[in-house]
Amino acid sequence: QVQLVQSGAEVKKSGSSVKVSCKASGGTFSSFAINWVRQAPGQGLEWMGGIMGMFRTTTYAQRLQGRVTITADEFMTTSEMELNSLRSEDTAVYYCARGLGYHLNQGFDNWGQGTLVTVSS
Amino acid sequence: QSALTQPASVSGSPGQSITISCTGTSSDVGGYNYVSWYQQHPGKAPKLMIYDVSNRPSGVSDRFSGSKSGNTASLTISGLQAEDEADYYCSSYTGSSTQVFGTGTKVTVL
Predict the structure, then answer these.
(1) Residue A27: what pLDDT?
(2) Where are any strands of DSSP class E within chain A?
(3) Distance from CA of A63 to the nearest CA of B (A)
(4) Is A9 on the interface with B (CB under 8 A)?
(5) Chain B: nearest CA to A111, how far in angstroms?
(6) If pLDDT is split at 50, 70 and 90, which confidence band does A119 have?
(7) pLDDT for residue A26 is more than 90
(8) Is the pLDDT of residue A54 over 80?
(9) B92 burial via Cβ count (<10 Å: 0-12, 13-18, 19+)
(10) Which one-letter DSSP state was computed for residue A1?
(11) Distance from B73 to chain A by nearest Cα, in Å?
(12) What percent of chain A has pLDDT over 90?
């Protein structure tokens, strides 16, 4: 069973950028989609975007378009999510999650452990 | 894309059945059979409980079942147990390779 292992917690200043990584331990996600989901403290889940492993096609949530970039390495073992122009409301736990298939239409059956990003002024 | 609407809280006694609704539009829940449900305990990552409206991943108890009618999907938990106390989220495909989550429901076992 492939495990998704994320990078550690980050503390960032408003206006800066953060990059969170998600490594597939014990395999690759070339046949799957990798999604990024965040959860602000005490709040619900928010889908941020994803990348389809087979085609490396990315899609982003409309409200984050232009601020978020999702990539995957050549071997489809690591995905990164970069969020720019950070604001206090970007403080959240960020999760990567593998889709059931290569398309970004199905549920997420394998989740990373989460990465806390704190944005301070 | 607006979040799907879920009741803020649902409660039940052990052994009872409860149902959580997830209301969207014809552009998401009503338009595709790609509704999923997740269980999240405090401080933990979400866990997939139902996918494609009514399918259970391997290892998920058959006490959990999903359905859909029109623009509303539902998750039913039968034989409610203390360990089912958690937050539950629905999600739906919205077309153009995007997804949206529900507002979340806190399930309390009385």
Answers:
(1) 85
(2) 3-6, 10-13, 18-25, 33-39, 45-52, 57-60, 68-72, 78-83, 92-99, 108-111, 115-120
(3) 8
(4) no
(5) 7
(6) very high
(7) no
(8) no
(9) buried
(10) -
(11) 14
(12) 82
Q: Alpha-carbon distance B37 to B60, whole Å? A: 12
Give pLDDT, residue B68.
98
Residue ranges, chain B, pLDDT below 50: none
**Which candidate from B1, B46, B52 shows the least CB-CB separation from A111?**
B46
Q: Which chain B residues have a beta carbon less than 8 Å from that of A105?
A: 32, 34, 93, 97, 99
* Closest Cβ opposite residue B51 in set A46, A62, A107: A107
Rounded mean pLDDT, A37-65:
94
Residues of chain A found within 8 Å of residue B45, distances taken between Cβ atoms = 95, 111-114
Residue A30's pLDDT is what? 84
Q: Which residue, chain included where needed, has tokens 């979040």?
A: B3
Strand-pair partners of B102: B4
Query: Mean pLDDT, chain B, as a whole number?
Result: 97
Q: Do A61 and B104 touch (CB under 8 A)?
A: no
